[in-house]
Structure prediction request, 284 residues.
Amino acid sequence: MQNIRIIGVVGAGQMGRGIAQVAIQSGFDVIIFDAFQNALDAGVDFIKNQLNKGVEKSKWSAADADAALKRLKTANDMKTLRDCDLVIEAATENRALKFDIFKKLDEIVKPDALLASNTSSISITEIAAQTKRPHLVAGMHFMNPVPVMKLVEGIRGLETSDETFNTVAAAAEKMGKTFVRAQDYPGFAVNRILMPMINEAFYALYEGVASAKDIDTAMKLGTNQPMGPLELADFIGLDTCLAIMDVLHTGLSDTKYRPCPLLKQYVAAGRYGRKNKKGVFVYE
Ligand code: CAA
Prediction:
C-alpha cells in the first residue's frame, strides 16, 4: 500500500471544503485548489469557522484546531498539486469538467500519485479512461455534510488496482470514515438505493397519497431517518436528485427508474431546494 501524506483537494465548494477539513484534522497535509479565488477564500473561511465552532463546543482543543489549520495550503494554480500523493476531485458534477480536470491532473501529478473522484453518479471507469493511469484512479464518494457523515463509498473502476483501492480505503479510514466497496455501475450503492426512495416519495406526493409534511414525518418517525425523503431531497438539491435519476434511468435502461414528473416540474420551476431556499419546502 502507498503511504499518503499530502492530499490535494480540487474544488472548495460544499464537498471539497468538508473533505479538506476532515483531512487536515486527521493529520494529512492538504492543498485545496479552486480556480476561483473567491470560492477558495469562502472555503477556507468556512473551514476556519467550523474549527472555531468545534473549539467552542469542546469537540477539540484550540491547539488541535491551530495545528490542523497549519496543515492547510491553498492554490489557484493546479500545478501546485504536483507533489500530492493523492488528489481528491470534488468539482461541480459535470462530465466535461471532470474529464478535463482528470486529463490535467494526469499531466501534473507525479507518476505514482493516486487520483480519486467524489462524483455521485459519473462512471469512474470513464473518468479513469481520461488518464494514462486508470489503475491509479478510484471513486471516493463522501456524503454531505462531510464532517458529520461516517461513510465514504469507494468505487472501483474497471481498471482500478487492488493496491489503489486499498490505499484510498486506508486514507478514508484515517479520516475516521467507514469505507464500503462498490462496483462502478450507475448510482453505485448509495444512490442506487437512496434516489429511488426519494423519487418514490415524489410519486407519493404527486399521487396525493399524503402531504409533503406527512410523507416526511412518516419516514422520519416510522423508519428512524434524521430527515424525511423530501427534506433530504431539498438538502441534496432537487436538480442533483433529478440528474442522478436520469443516470439510473438511462444507465440501467429500466422504466422503474423514471424520474417523477413532479420532481421534473420543481426543477423546471427553478425550485432546487435548500441552496436557493425553495424546493418542496420553503426555507427562511
Ligand atoms: N458541517 C459540519 N457539521 C455540521 C453541518 C455541516 N454542514 N451541519 C450540521 N453539522 C453538525 C452540527 O454542528 C451538530 O454537531 P454537534 O451535535 O456535535 O453539535 C450536528 O451536525 C447536528 O446538527 P444540528 O443539530 O444543527 O441539526 P440536526 O440534528 O438536524 O442534523 C444533519 C443535521 C446532520 C444534516 C442531519 O439532519 C442528517 O444527518 N441528515 C441526513 C443527511 C444525509 O443523509 N446526508 C447524505 C446525503 S446523500 C449524499 O450526500 C450523497 C449523494 O450523492 C447525494
